[in-house]
Amino acid sequence: MWAMVVKEFRQLRRDHRTLALMVVLPVVLLIVFGYAARFDVDSIPTRVYGPGADQVQRLLQPPFDVDRVDTGGTRADAEAALRDGDVPVAVVTTDDGATLLLDGSELFTANAARAALAQERASAGGPARPVDLQVDVLFNPDLSTSVVMVPALAGLILLFVGTVITSLGVVRERQAGTLEQLAVMPLRPRDVFLGKIAPYFLVATIDLAIVLTVGILLFDVPFRGSFPLLALGALLFLFVTLGIGVLISTVSQNQGQAIQLALMTLLPQVLLSGLIFPLDSMAASVRWISYLLPLTYFTQISRGIMVRGAGIDALWPPFLFLAVLGAVIVLLATARFRRDLAPAPARHHAGPAESAEVAA
If you ran DSSP here, which 8-state letter would residue 58 be given? Predict the structure, then answer.
């Protein structure tokens, strides 16, 4: 039995992927949950518009963090700032009073702003306001969780299909030996890459359509933006996820290794992309990782288009990042395929004269 235990330990030591999954991943999850698993928002970027902006700005207390005061601005300017995702909170002042506008697509920030305002109103020692702030929630008036979760879950499904299913499918062909047959066929690595991801691209597209249809019909999720623009964002995001899946398959020898690597790429994106925990509540030492993850940008695109009706003028940064990341991933996956599909050196076969000489 002791020999069996020693053998298992040696085998585990040689399996670096399993060792990383057992040791490194729990440590990463502990750090992530310790610094990122927070629903409270300590600082709320706020803009103040209207003739009384200067006076209201001086009365706003933390967590409201005023980053701009526009005495000539109107409610239309404030709504545009919220729709474009510039800030989650804006105050509009008029001669009749002041209104606090909240971006309902930023669920936790909106709840934190309402709670802070209610606490300040209930505090007897709080500063007196010249006008009473009326609260108006835009884009998601009921602050429904499903309205902000369904667009993000669409990205999670695309990520699962593109990363896990694609990697498993390609590794299955590697184990079956069909990839070796492609090496002798007149196909370029780019053609092989596109041919491999085409079926999974179709499946992911169907899944996206189903999720959005069910979300709109069953959960009353609005769709205020442009469908072609969302389709473009999904296309870019799919190229990234499918490329990651193919990359995982090229460094995996079996499906078990592919699942391990896929999980190690999935979990950080689920936890740090803003899907569950708001980015503003994360510590700066962890938040920077979020801006390296493709799901972070697709979540911004899907929520911005569906819930707020934002256009390309406000969402071009996440589109640009996905385009650049997709190009890099596709080039890397194609290069890996070129190496895997490279024909093995031809063996030297002895001719008849050489055979006769050997026989002699």
Answer: H
Residue 36 domain-assigned (yes or no):
no
Shared domain for 219 and 158, answered yes or no, is yes
Length of the chain: 360
Report yes or no on 239 lying in a domain: yes
| pLDDT value of residue 318 | 95
Same domain, yes or no: 114 and 177 = no
Provide DSSP, 282-340.
Answer: S-HHHHHHHTT-HHHHHHHHHHIIIII---HHHHHHHHHHHHHHHHHHHHHHHHHHHHH
| Same domain as 133, residue 150 | no
Give residue-wise pLDDT tens across range 290-305. 888 999 999 999 999 9
Please check whether residues 249 and 189 belong to one and the same domain. Answer: yes
Q: Which domain holds residue 55?
A: 44-138
pTM for this model (two decimals): 0.81
* Statement to judge: residues 153 and 196 lie in one domain: yes
Evaluate whether residue 38 is within a structural domain.
Answer: no
Taking only the tens place, the pLDDT of each residue in 188-219 is 666 666 777 788 788 888 888 888 898 889 88
Is the pLDDT confidence value at 133 over 70? yes
DSSP per-residue codes, 212-265: HHHHHHHS-----S-HHHHHHHHHHHHHHHHHHHHHHHHT-SSHHHHHHHHHHH
Backbone CA torsion sign across 289, 294, 299, 305: positive
Q: How far apart are the first and last CA of the chain?
A: 55
Regarding whether 164 and 59 lie in a shared domain, the answer is: no
Residue 49: helix, strand or coil by DSSP?
A: strand
SS3 44: strand
Final residue of a domain: which of 114, 138, 162?
A: 138
| Same-domain pairing of 276 and 332 | yes
CA distances from 114 to 11, 232, 294 (A): 56, 35, 31
Cα–chain-centroid distance for residue 229?
17
Q: Is 331 part of a structural domain of the chain?
A: yes
- Across 122-204, the runs of DSSP E, i.e. the strands, are 133-138
Indicate the range of 16-25, 43-52, 102-111, 338-347 predicted with least confidence.
Answer: 338-347
